[in-house]
Design goal:
4-stranded mixed β-sheet, globular, alpha/beta, 2 domains, 6-stranded parallel β-sheet, Rossmann fold, 60s Ribosomal Protein L30, Chain: A
Amino acid sequence: MTQGTQHFSGSYRQEDVEFLLTPMALEPILDLAEKERLIQSGQRHYSEMLSPESLPSPAYLALFQSAFAANRLQMARDCLRLAALIAARRTGPITLVSLARAGTPVGVILGHLLRQVFQRECSHYSVSIIRDRGIDANALKHILAQGHAAESIVFVDGWTGKGVISRELRQTVHDFNAANGTAIDGGLFVLSDLAGTAACAASSGDYLIPSSILNATVSGLVSRSVLNEAIGPDDFHGCVYYAQFEQHDQSRAFADGLVADAMAIAASSGIPLAEASDAPAMAARSQAYMAAAQQEYGISDINLIKPGIGEATRVLLRRVPERLIVRDTNAPDVAHLLLLAQEKAIPVTVEPALPYQAVALIRSAVDG
């Protein structure tokens, strides 16, 4: 495999993003129960395998359109707010580095807003970060080799769940800096910080970020990132490009719609002020809930608990769920989760005191 020889933007425009990922062929694991057993027993790392991706059903797609209509202005406002926060924290050119793949649509939108609303020079790369394996160091080296200053880099994602990735990012960027004599800021900028672990967030509410509902068809037709034996030591982490979904792709239209909404908000009512969020309180809430859920449901591995709408959606789309927990079954933001739970015959528990709109539990695949 070669890297850096060809601009790879997935289904986005070339100026929207450069994926620092290695497109590859990879057969998905069709037996999700076997995939869970391999992951939970430690025989395979989750990043070595992909679940099959399919196009959403008409009913599910209708829920996406409904969610987009209901939440697009909140997401647009939060994107505008986050762009303002980034512009205030960086001088000179800005290098957005989104975390593939949930961060990619957000990075595309932010890039447009930083250039058009804030008149800032802005580049956007999307890179892989993998739990327990860290950020793709080859991708960071490539970004620096293109002449981008270390202090211009801003890491972007959609949301935090438990805060695992934001902590992984901070630690592995610290290690990268130590090994390479650089001073990259390892803080994460997100739309919604449920875990209280982001460096900067537009909000801390668990609302339905519409891009969390779909997989590849809203993220440039790329898969989750892959790191297996096919990836060489000098390669970027891998991904699969789903060319077969091109006719159904919504990636550009989704980002363009949000940019237009945010531009309209900026023109009519100005830049929304940053809302002060209490990160320590969010972190305490997260830790308290995780401890309580572990005890109530007898779960020893916290990786099996996925708090928040975005994380719960990922579980129901590509893992083996044990249970869906929601605060209110009548809340529009969880309608797609209830549909997925119904389609997959997953039990639903209602907890009116739940600190999030939804939590998914992954089924334990190993004994004891």
